[in-house]
Amino acid sequence: MEEIGEDYLVAAHPRPFEGERGHLKLLLQARRDFLEVWRQSDYAGQNSQISILGRQIIVVNAPESVKQVMAANHENYERKTPQMRRALEFLLGDGLFISDGETWQHRRPLVSNIVHKNRLPVFGKVMESVTAEMALRWSHLEPGATVNALYEMAALTAEIISRTAFGNDLGADSAKEVIEGFSGYQKLIDSINIGYFVGFDDGLPIWRTPKLKASVARIHKVIDRVVDQHLAGKGDQDAMIDIMVRRTRRNPNLKLDKEAMRNEAATIFMAGHETTAATLTWAWYLISSAPWAEEKMLEEIARVCGDRAPTVEDVPQLDYCRAVIEETLRLYPPVPILGRQAREADKLGDIDVQPASLVIVVPWLLHRSPDLWEEPNRFMPERFLDRRPTPYTYVPFAAGPRICAGLQFGLTESILCLATLAQRFKVRVADGFHASPVCRLTLRPAGGLPVTITPR
Ligand code: HEM
Asked: Which of 268, 269, 275, 413 to mutate to test the pocket of ligand 1 (most atoms within 8 A of CB)?
């Protein structure tokens, strides 16, 4: 469902669900596509709850309760859901994305430091050169050639994170092994853990099929080799893994053995590329359907950069490009569900929270609530230009102590890649294609996004 006018765009979104929602049916529907299940009333800026087979699920959509879960009482909600932990533990072990308690407290400062914004000048150079390589490849396409933007952006961001995390000397074959291993793993895992709904508070381990084991083995083999190289002092010194190795040597209290290093490296790789690829894909969809916004973006790029390619140093001046990315993240948050498991009883608004229940903040709902946003389905980058959203109404990177560790990296990368490619190419959604958002682990257009590429 989208509406395109000369100077406005109502961006694609599924029609709200109508009719009766049986709870078991809801679970199965959510397993297929989490966006299909919401009724118009679920978008209201208030909390709601349901119970499935006796399990309490609370949907938190009132900003003051979002604050309570993410920040004010975060300790009670620090733990990820059993579905998330079980789905990823085979691959990530005790990696930051799914750890909690002491492990999380120990590792969070380390990982935050590794991807910190102070290192952006170095990581930004990798972003610039990988994007320039893609621009060169695009310049060899026939003008008007059709490509799938989702795959192109996935290749771009995977290359950026693999070179920044593992080092510039990783090699194309190893990069391919990791990238294919991750996408294979994602396809094989289930987003719902039935064990949790039949009485196991921590869910049940997922079935480690031969295919799943093969994907994990591919990824672990490459990362283990890279960690060994860096431990032997032979890796790229600017790589995130190298920083991790040096930090660990300096501070033995971190107690990071080789397996823990692999887990954190795999976490950074996973967290750091799908999300940015989805952001860029949706940004192309929106810009392509809103020429008035594209014009403002191009004017800004020309004013700030002239004819040269944008650099990481230009990013703070690219305000309109930033607003386009922020509005993209509002309409299509790559992580559309932030799930937590309550440790202890609590009260969210007038809902009594039971221990071990699921508490979910759904950026998809929060960002499109008519109570919190003016014309919520409309693409309007301007809403991010001179003001900030009301606190806890906009959480594409989560909020509070568990906020995305790579926020500045991801934002900078999205702005820089978008500006660099938009300066040189006109990207248009292929004729007759209508994007429809679907959600499993990340939010993406069903079937990807076919676009035509024409040099400017
Ligand atoms: C536009 C791009 C990105 C978006 C929208 C995004 C979003 C998020 C969100 C929503 C979370 C929290 C998930 C939850 O609470 O359940 C998260 C966590 C995380 N992200 Fe990002 N992310 C992005 C890019 C990156 C990048 C580039 C990196 C690394 C270089 C990264 C590293 C991480 C890590 C390590 C965590 C776990 C933090 C913790 O649990 O303490 N992210 N991200």
From this structure: 275
